[in-house]
Amino acid sequence: MTTTSIEPLARLREQYPAAKLPRILVHRGTAGDALRAERYLDELRDALGDRADAVYEAASDGANWAAPSATVFQGTYTRRFDRLDLNGIDEVVACFNGDCGDEANYAGTGGRGLTARLGRNNGSLGDVLAQGAYVALDRALDMTADQLLDAIEAGGFTGRGGAHFPVASKWRFAGAHRDEPRMLVVNAEEGEPGVFKDRHLLEGDPHRLIEGILLAHHAVGFERAYVYINGQARIARASFERALEQAREARILDGSAWERSFDLEIHVRSGAGGYVCGEESVILNSIEGERPVPRYKPPFATDRGLFDRPTVINNAETLCAVTTVFDNPPPPTKLVSLSGDVPRPGLYEVPVDGATTWAGLLAMAGANPGDTQAILLGGPSGTFVMPEQFEDALEMRGLGAGGTVVLGRDADLARVTRELAAYNMRESCGECTPCREGTVRMVQLLESPREHREEIASLIEVLTEGSLCQLGGMAGRPVESALEQFPAAFDQ
After folding, report:
1. What is the pTM of this model?
2. Which residues are CB-neighbours of 316 under 8 A, at least 6 positions away?
3. What are the tens digits of pLDDT across the range 472-486?
4. Residue 195 belongs to a domain
């Protein structure tokens, strides 16, 4: 491996400098705008008068419970101010003027990893360049494709959408088709309830995804990349398209900033929303303009995928994670969307190296494990984690896509299970009989589950083995988990 040249990045940073300090970032995005965070932009600008240009809008830093919030960057430290609707802006202005009190620290996610830049940049290319964007790409361009694939394999990177298939292996499968144009599809559909990690990444650090796409392109060599964003995630799409334009203007997208030619087209597409649209073959049909239903396999996408060409399909978090390949070591973390009966819901980046338990995750969010009946992991396709498992260590594969809903003392677990079954029934695309008919029958049987335990068990087997895609194939998981973990709830 040759020594990495920092000259291209140095030129970019000189051309696109970061915003000056001190400054205030008001956290908007989906989480902030839900609580009218935009009005505090005007209030703070009015309060600062001729220094109003030091107030910027930013995305959420993951602490959705704190919204509406703002962060002051003052000299060598930062401090976030929570719940501006309750606490006002006086302390924010005072901190901007240098009086931040004794606890001048950053309370957001921060640190290293995928959330390091969330809530810390104003959406400009200069800010994210100053905070480390495109460093991994700069280093990778001094390597061959095989060397980069070896580094990704050594880092143990797996898919973050739920299946956790090794990234390097999937890329090599597509890369084996050397004589054919190859496609990359980025799955940012995220249509399942209780999952919002990809939205945070696209809203708060879209350049990380662009960098991940370019790393994948360097390793495999794609003709086109399609980023498939949930049709309801309008802020996420707008943020990503703005970042694409910034990268295009800076000559990052075409590679000429490094005196190269990447020869890659990046397109953005949105679906109409819906749980089934997260299934990879449904995305392929949707992009091609076909009916959004699953495809039969084989052939698999890496052989014959989008437009009948070899295709790699990666979750957005997966490609973002690859940008940490040269960290020493890559952070052993997973993004978790935490909601439900907790004081501090939001996006958490949690260690999956055996150091953190379910009880530890609950503590991060200010919840008392003793007041928690169960944790629903994976939403409509998930399972329940019970109190006797709260001391188990978090594992990458066990976290699936990271959707985590805490169910408190007052939760009716049997009702929750029935609602999950009803959701799967409504979201079925109707393409295959096991799912189309089986999910309807499951809802009916759960009205009197005690009398139909054996029939429910048989139906779960039919759904699992006979469904065309994983919406139907996993529709029985929460029901099976519920009947196993808390059967008494269904006897009432």
Report:
1. 0.94
2. 186, 187, 188, 190, 198, 201, 202, 209, 227
3. 888 999 999 999 999
4. yes
